[in-house]
Amino acid sequence: MWQGMRGRALTGIVVLAGLMGFAPAASASVTASMSVTSATPVAAGTNGTLGLDLKFSPSAGDAPDQVALNLPSGVLANASIDNGQCLKTTDVTDSACQIGSGTVTADALGTPLPTPVDFYLVPPPAAGDLAGLEVTTTQGDQVGVTNAIVIRPSGDPDGVGVTLQLTLPNSLYGVPVAVTDINSSFTGVRFPATCPATPANVTMSVNSYNATGTSATASTPLPVSGCSALAYNPQYSLSAVKDANDKTVKITTTITQTATESPDGTVSLTFPRASMAGALTGLANLCQSISSGTCKPVGSVTAASPDYPAPLTGNAYLTGTLHGLSLTIVFPAPFPLTLVGAVDLTTNTTVFSNLPDIPLTNLTVALNGGSGGLFDTNCAAPTNTSTSKLTDQNGDKTAAPTAHFTIQGCPSSSGGSGSSSGSSSASSSAPRVSSTRVSGLTTRRPSLRFTVHAAKHTKLSRVTVELPKGLSLRSHTVHKVRRIRGGLTVKGAKLKSAAIVKGHLVLTLRRPAASVTVTISSKGLRESAALHREATKKKLKSLHLTVVARTSAGKSRPIHVTVKHLGL
């Protein structure tokens, strides 16, 4: 019920109702229009005030009923205010839960009745709602019913974002009224981190009490600016634990950001195959239809958002087909998100694209080990580095943080990690790398030199070089084979071929050798601008080099080296 109106206005309405009656029109309908009243464009990724003016024009004898106000993707209500207490108890006297104010104007038999109102965040009216919205007069009387604030699910035509579901009253003390205007100002609204050339629209649909099954729509653009000013510095970490009873590995990846950074738009994670590879046992949990409710999760996911007071938890499923696998992450309501990552088994890479514009300070995905685990290890290279390629929501910033890890549960004798002196751990039963040196980084003339030694009683037949981050090969194509442009010298053995395969230099020896020394000068190496900046600022402490040594018996062993001789 609508309370708190002046007695004089109420008396006038009752008299008019008695004299004129109230008959519905023969053709009932409602039209709608909308405008943004706050300053535009709004600042990307910030929390600010969103002003909206909703206008309704019902036909005589009709009134607007249900309103769905769809805010653009990335516009979010802050449900974490007052540490989440507003979602637990309704208290319209607590200013901490007040999220806005405005004026609601209703027409009562031709007389406009403007009423100042306040908006409060309250507990969700139904399971699955993000929160509730209660409208009260300045005297504290509720206007209409408690309205729902919901998050639209993945795949919604309007994108993932907030929808306000409003139910408007059509009577006051038994006297018919029709709401004609809601002029509102909401505070603490989180704005998008994307700045499209054509602004996204705030959209609205409304039906009327008498025109069943029909609705009117309206929209207005919400320009956003300042995306390039947003910080973007995500961090990446990985942990891995080998199962005690088999070779499977539990892998946990975590991406962290600050609350003021642009959220990730694309996430690509690559696991080194020398340390962990796809396990066939994981295909036992291949899910054909998540909606069936019969699929078994292959992992779990936890996320933290500054706009919600509790952690978001969900499950990970192996989906797709044998010819095109996917990792699908499913969050339940109130954040009904489905994130699908394409899995490339040849590169051990999973790519999540078109992620929703929701700020997350932590996103942790844990993939199960044990029976049905997705990855296994032979502990040949328990210490290694996982790489990433991340892009922000607006698509104009990238980051590539790495995650160094050691698989727990592998025997210490299977280490294989590089030493701080710049050469790998030596062992009579394992190949090693020595005399590793990088130079020329400050002059943009990079050079790399190292020596590979075969294990005792074996000889080398092939050496594969995975360059440190920031260095790449200068290449060209000869007879459909990618080859290094020059600057390659091999001592201790004669080369049969030198080819570039998937960005790695593969050196095949004409005859097996006990050791080879490889030098690549600036004629064959290219240095990234980021690596040059780190080198000139003297911030570079080490680089990570991987060499795969293949023996004449056909066995391969990765050797991971931390290079500290950088010539700076």
Characterize the structure shown.
The protein is mostly beta strands. It contains 2 helices and 43 strands. The strands form 8 sheets. The protein has a 15-stranded mixed sheet that branches. Strands 1-3-12-5-6-7-8-9-4-13-14 form an 11-stranded antiparallel sheet, with no helix packed on it. Strands 38-39-33-42-43 form a 5-stranded antiparallel sheet, with no helix packed on it. It is elongated. The termini are far apart.
Overview features:
15-stranded mixed sheet; mainly beta; 11-stranded antiparallel sheet; 568 residues; disordered N terminus; 43 strands
Tell me briefly what this model is.
The chain is mostly beta strands.
Helix content: under 10%
Mean pLDDT: 88
- Describe the main β-sheet briefly: 15 strands, mixed
Shape: elongated
Low-pLDDT segments: 1-26, 413-428
* Rg for CA atoms: 32 Å
User: Helical stretch count?
Assistant: 2
Distance between the first and last residues' Cα: 76 Å
Strand % is over 45%
- What's the total number of strands? 43
Helix/strand structural class = mainly beta
